[in-house]
Structure formats: C-alpha cells, structure tokens
Amino acid sequence: MKRDVTIRLGQKEYILITDSSEEEFLKVTNEIQREYHRLSSQASKAEIDEILIVMIANLILNQLKLEDKLNSCVSKINEVLSKYPKSGERTKNQE
C-alpha cells in the first residue's frame, strides 16, 4: 500500500511516496538525514541542492563499487564451480 512520508532536510520538507514497510523506510530516512547532517556540517555554506548532489554522487559511486565487488565474487564462484561436474553429468571415474 502506497503512502506519503515527509522528510525534513535543513529548512525544506519533502514528501516521498513509498510502498516499503515502515521499518525499511525509517532506515532509509534516518540514513538520508544522517548523511545530510554530516555533509552539511562539513560544508556549512553549501546549498541544500549542492549537498543532495554530493549525496547522490556518493550513492552511485558506492553502488558501482558494490557491483564490481559482486561481479568479482560471482566470477570466483563460477570459477570454483567449473571445477566440479554439473548435476547429471558423469565424471570419467563414473564411466
């Protein structure tokens, strides 16, 4: 069920629409607010949109790093699995 949730950053309020559980969305909003406050305290003269752009860039950078790490893990798993026969295949010892 979709519902509106309000989040306040600096002097602005944003209304977000979500169908996530309340617990999930609380984690998200808490993380947004935590990161916003961290960045705004480091750059006190920055405008809210500048801070939000930095937050977006950081999120995308983290996502790309995680995707690379995931791809590396999948490759390693596939490499290990390739050493074992697939289900239903016979090994030379079984023939």
From TrEMBL:
Keywords: Cell cycle, Cell division. InterPro entries: Cell_div_ZapA-like_sf. SUPFAM superfamilies: Cell division protein ZapA-like (SSF102829). The keyword Cell cycle applies. It comes from the Bacteria. The keyword Cell division applies. GO terms for biological process: cell division. This is Cell division protein ZapA. It comes from Kosmotoga arenicorallina.
